């Protein structure tokens, strides 16, 4: 059976600083994850063919860099665009845009950042990715928190209300094996 693997990029410099968005590099811990990832994947699929898809942002390309498989960068896998809040911490957003902060809390799926995107927008832009995923064999997607939430919710048929709160931890590979109805799931967390 074919497998779909999801992983967030390794820890980034912005993750360390608590800032959202941006295009920062991996932190030293993030690089440790990038270096450990090839063995974890090989242990799971052996010599079966695999293609790696990542976003156009530095942190996903860096996380994919050690993987010995064909790779493809998709703009539509870039993280949810936080508009004017890009590069801020959640504390800064609460301070400078208190109304937005509250509105997002009220309806996280539909809230659209000023000059940016909502989860609903991201679901729409991921449609071509999902169509292509349905036609492919083994794929590993190295993405971002909001992006993987949307893809994961699609394969597990989770609701729009739950989608923005799905736990997608760093340094964890999620393996989905599609069945006639639904998907089997395994998670592999690297102790990094
Ligand atoms: O903090 C990492 C991050 O990927 C941000 O770049 C992004 O804005 C955020 O997570 C998405 O998570 P949430 O929708 O819970 O703020």
From TrEMBL:
Annotated substrate binding sites: 8-15, 59
Domain of life, source organism: Eukaryota
Nucleotide-binding found in the keyword field: yes
UniProt entry keywords in alphabetical sequence: ATP-binding, Hydrolase, Nucleotide-binding
Molecular function terms from GO: 6-phosphofructo-2-kinase activity; ATP binding; fructose-2,6-bisphosphate 2-phosphatase activity
Any Gene Ontology CC annotation: cytosol
GO BP: any one term: fructose 2,6-bisphosphate metabolic process
Family statement: In the C-terminal section; belongs to the phosphoglycerate mutase family.
UniProt-recorded name of the protein: fructose-2,6-bisphosphate 2-phosphatase
Organism: Kalmanozyma brasiliensis (strain GHG001) (Yeast)
């Amino acid at each position: 059976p074919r497998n779909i693997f999801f992983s967030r990029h390794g820890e980034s410099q912005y993750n360390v600083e608590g800032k959202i968005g941006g295009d920062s590099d991996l932190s030293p811990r993030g690089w440790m994850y990038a270096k450990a990832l090839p063995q974890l994947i090989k242990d799971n699929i052996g010599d079966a063919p695999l293609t790696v898809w990542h976003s156009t942002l530095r942190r996903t390309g860096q996380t994919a860099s050690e993987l010995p498989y064909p790779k493809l960068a998709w703009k539509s896998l870039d993280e949810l665009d936080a508009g004017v809040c890009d590069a801020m911490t959640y504390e800064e957003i609460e301070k400078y845009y208190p109304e937005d902060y509250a509105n997002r809390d009220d309806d996280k799926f539909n809230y659209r950042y000023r000059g940016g995107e909502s989860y609903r927008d991201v679901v729409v832009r991921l449609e071509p990715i999902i169509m292509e995923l349905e036609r492919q064999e083994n794929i590993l997607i190295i993405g971002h928190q909001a992006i993987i939430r949307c893809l994961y919710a699609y394969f597990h048929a989770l609701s729009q209300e739950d989608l923005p709160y799905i736990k997608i931890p760093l340094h964890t590979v999620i393996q989905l094996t599609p069945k006639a109805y639904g998907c089997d799931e395994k998670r592999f967390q690297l102790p990094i």
